[in-house]
């Protein structure tokens, strides 16, 4: 499962293996005619095969409340009220709901549910199911991963009212878009909803389970789906253990849809006319710094001038070529996505991080802060060398290349980086407990494209703890700033986007100055398709959903949109 | 009888020591399962402070309890056959995961280890008996294959026989495109054999050299013993001299080695399973380690421990039969 820790980015064990894989793919590509035909089991060609990152043995778990549920449980079999497309800045798409409104102080959310929806066992869906779902979550602490504190009541067959204890505008994406609705007539009899594996799931989604084994499972189209039966009739999910296996399976035509970083992707695509790919950079690769000396962080990176100098000394174009395969997107110092979130970024200068290095500016910043060049080219201040350890995970080859390239780039301004590679567990533990100086990681996706979720998680001082305790809520940098906290409190209490934008401008002023997370680039997220059995996959022009094959909720949209080829 | 009891007593102590280590070693790793699960969730979507509480409640892991109490609970659960619930595969139980994966590993790696041993020892006997024959000349070649890193050899074979000439399938334990799940049919069994052929071949190729070389050299030194000369002088048939006099004595070190390699069948399968995406216990162990899944790790280590101890016990007893000297001394 460690492969899944950074979804969609599979890494090969070393340069040797990577070399073999590349040549495997190239040669296999040249002998494309020998690809074996795998659609024998289904002559109509309406079966597509998905690799979503499962490795080894698959255990049955279609419980939509479970954090280890099989990925198609969310979005494909069970549906939420609304669907948030994080690949664009579009408004949420109504699924099981048709409308919602808040009361003025944000304590009551009224949801209008869709009519004419049936569960896959034929029973009608109603607002009572929605109310049941939210009450079940609120009443069961072990299911309540989003801290939902609401009581739900179905006032009529198609209206649900959720009552919150405090103003909860920011619960909106979690309530509407991140909660699978379950049928009351089945789940009221479930003895323990926490450990239930729900082997015959009854949902409202476009597909239902056809068969399951520990090595693959099959979904079939739901003929009674409220949006019309999907054109693809069967979807098979398979498990593969490594990036090598996945790429070989893709080239052989065994897999139709997968997300992985493949070395030499353009060569593979050009020799296999059936294959295509789309790149949706979404996760910002950043240098996490342990920034707050007051919280117990130690090292030169606690000086904001050092963090700014690093920010300006990076040659991001070169890093993208050397480590990102040229697929990475441009990052923003505001930690938002320049393409999707441009409207939320107050200062046009903050939309994109500089592409090339500005060593003069970096040197000036360090000079002004009192870091003077020592005899070995590394700066010192009061006897402390400007030298920091940067940690990343063994086997994350692109991050390891990043570290090596940055070490050289930063040496030019007198900063010494000491890269270290540790196991995932150790890396994660160091980052959570604050026992690191610099750490390479990615800024993940929020619940919606509203910047609140990024800013609250990474910058709110309520989400951090002193070094030594685990910063589980997100703020690993130990960053703390009263202006940011105040702005977040205001943004939380309103659903007026204009007011929120003003607050985010305050936050952006602080964080682009302080840079507790130094953005490098937006990492590529490559998704490969085989067009010979189905078409209509998301493209660069039409990102109607996040295309990654591991992305919950979006999968359901993609699978009901694609059409089999004849 | 006293010999057997002594052996059993020794194995009981070894088992206890192994189980205790098994308990402590995973807990010395950095991190704990709840934090790891939260971090993994965080890469997929938003998590809040409540997530941690929810997951701790869900897993029922009380990592704050004193270590000695966890130890007592652990021993108690082991005795009652309950290996606990897996964190990585929640809510599946460890017994379930092991039950699902172990047959694949034993089937593939166990059988190929046995084949490799039998063929290797057989060829080694022959090579030692007839020095300078073609079998003898095979030995440098097979030992060279053994010194090639296993994953490299496996990748090369997969590349040539899976991609360039698609003779064998690329991955999996059976054809998931034809069979929805394991079933008892000739088609399914042949699919399993077909998918297992290439991984098994790589294991045999990469391990046969050691058996051959060891057996051949032991044969050579045994053949120069006086009792062989006596047997030949008595006019015994060459076949009988080879089997009852030479190879029975020469095989002893190989059998000891075989016991150890049988024990490591379970542990040594990680690379094979990774290269061929084989659904065995090795990938479950990897997953367990990466998720700090104590219960699953302990469960799998328990299986490994039992396999190693069991194989050693069996060989110890077998040794008593083959080699009377070990009995006499006790």
Automatic annotation (TrEMBL), chain A:
One of its GO terms (molecular function) is peptide transmembrane transporter activity. One of its GO terms (biological process) is peptide transport. Pfam families: SBP_bac_5 (PF00496). Coiled coil: none annotated. Residues 92-461 form the Solute-binding protein family domain. GO terms for cellular component: ATP-binding cassette (ABC) transporter complex; periplasmic space. SUPFAM superfamilies: Periplasmic binding protein-like II. This is Peptide ABC transporter substrate-binding protein. It comes from Cellulomonas soli.
UniProtKB/TrEMBL annotation, chain B:
This is Peptide ABC transporter permease. It comes from Cellulomonas soli. Residues 102-315 form the ABC transmembrane type-1 domain. One of its GO terms (cellular component) is plasma membrane. CDD domains: TM_PBP2. It holds the Pfam family BPD_transp_1. The chain crosses the membrane at residues 7-25, 104-129, 150-168, 188-213, 250-276, 296-322. InterPro entries: MetI-like, MetI-like_sf. The keyword Hydrolase does not apply. It is a multi-pass membrane protein. Keywords: Membrane, Transmembrane, Transmembrane helix, Transport.
